[in-house]
Design a protein that fits this description.
Blueprint (H helix, E strand, L loop, with lengths): L1 H21 L3 E6 L26 H21 L3 E6 L2 E2 L10 H10 L4 E4 L5 E3 L1 E2 H13 L6 E3 L4 E3 H11 L6 E4 L14 H6 L8 H17 L6 E2 L3 E2 L1
Parallel strand pairs: 1-2, 2-7, 3-6, 4-9
Antiparallel strand pairs: 5-8, 10-11
Helix pairs in contact: 1-2, 3-5
Family: Belongs to the NAD(P)-dependent epimerase/dehydratase family. UDP-glucuronic acid decarboxylase subfamily.
Function: Catalyzes the NAD-dependent decarboxylation of UDP-glucuronic acid to UDP-xylose. Necessary for the biosynthesis of the core tetrasaccharide in glycosaminoglycan biosynthesis.
GO molecular function, one term: UDP-glucuronate decarboxylase activity
Amino acid sequence: MGWIHKTNVVGTLNMLGLAKRVGARFLLTSTSEVYGDPLQHPQVETYWGNVNPIGVRSCYDEGKRTAETLTMDYHRSLGIEVRIARIFNTYGPRMCIDDGRVVSNFVAQALRKEPMTVYGDGKQTRSFQYVSDLVEGLIRLMEGDHVGPFNLGNPGEFTMLELAEVVQEAIDPNAKIEFKPNTEDDPHKRKPDISKAKQLLGWEPTISLRKGLPLMVNDFRQRIFGNPKTVLVGGGATA
């Protein structure tokens, strides 16, 4: 998995160099994974995290942490305009159907009449934001005067079992759940404190999971089973 770390580090260096040459403002899309398996809940931007540097997930976690370090170094030493967003779990139409993320996994499995795979006891939590809320946050960040980092996420917190129940509501109340052993270094909880974004960017998410998930389900259903007469527009509504 070294290519993940290389992409985050070398790729960020390449883009920072380009931003320096052309005088561009640079956006680093970082991640809530920089907090690791947090001991502070919810997570604020001043929290340094609890990351295992040699774990199976560390190539991504540490790659993003290094990318943040490089971005701030270029900002301080070379005066490059930068913005840093720490993005929490995001979902919505046009996601890759089989990308391995939990929302896309559950939706695709339920639509295909397969059991939804829950790892561990399902009590670990995540916070899920709809894609258009994230886009609005990124626009406000890039158009504003504050470097960051900023948490961009929906503070609504769900266990994996609660997420599975929401998917059942949207697709099939009888959809099955299959439990499997938990993955190594899986964070127990994750929830953003977005006070900084609310105060300095005037941003907070507006679309709840129960409102946004059906739009994603419609998109997945069309792509899995095929419906060429239906076209996605705007935030995911159909026309």
